[in-house]
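Example record

The entry below shows one chain as it appears in the dataset: sequence first, then structure tokens.
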Amino acid sequence: MRALIWAVAAGMLMVACAPPFGLGEPSRPALEQGARNSLSATKSYEMTGTYVEGGSSWTIDLQVQHPGAEHVKVNGPVQLEAIVVGGQPYFRGQQFLESYLGSDAQSQSLVKAAGNAWWKGLAAQPPQLPELTDGAAFRAFFMGSAVATRTDHVMVDGVDTVEFTGQRADVYIAEASPNRLIRIHMNKGVVVDGIGEGDLHYANYDNDFHIVAPSDVIDFSNLSTLPPLYTVLSVDTSGCSSPCVVSAQLKNLGGPTGAKAPSTVTFTMKDTASNQVLGSCKATVSPDVGFNGIATVGCTIPNVSGQHNAAVVTATADNPGRA
């Protein structure tokens, strides 16, 4: 009984010592300024979470390091990783590159050649989220007249926060100075920066993310930075007798190095009447030639003798792409 009395007395004492009518709590201007400074006046921060765009669910992990460096990973129907240093964006992600370039044969060859390497030189841009990453834009869109109610001492991600419920989102800002932004939960139906239903968390303020430009980058404005990318110019069957020796002339639309394996050319002989495959052989391109260089490769199609007037030989190049 005595222990219970002491516990009740201690609780009453804590209530009695608490500042009345919210006195001692951070002011709303201080909290709004703290949220703004979180995004614009810190060395760095990280934003992670989920959102909906184009009817699909996405996850994002964005690291911002002032001035002018970003590293973002986005996962959804396609995957994209991007680094921005000094205004120059670098990208990685075959699915994104494929969706960006298109589905024609030449574009698919470029996608395969690029592999999962870093690339630049196309007019692509990483996700642009000014209302969620710029302090002034964030404050103007989510705070001010957009706020309806305030609730103090709401625990979010292990931080004591002030919850501002508004017409566009619920915003959570740390009670303790410097009143950093902790979380934003967008209301259903609200779209900002092209995304909706965002549930985004902010953390790792003033960390050094070591964001630097990647090395060994493919530059699509300079195709010689691509690995070998051979295309067939012509096929020569004049040597197809006994044995049936065939050859092809190739042009390299990429550079001479960087592939994970040698390029090959597959020769296939088909009967034009029945479309039946009569035989095939494969040749390896070695050594590689430079950008716009010409190479000739050949091989012998086995089990074929004499001329086949009703047959046609085609050659298909296979470029394994970036290591």
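Notes for this example: Residues 1-21 have pLDDT under 50 and may be disordered. DSSP finds six helices and 19 strands in the chain.
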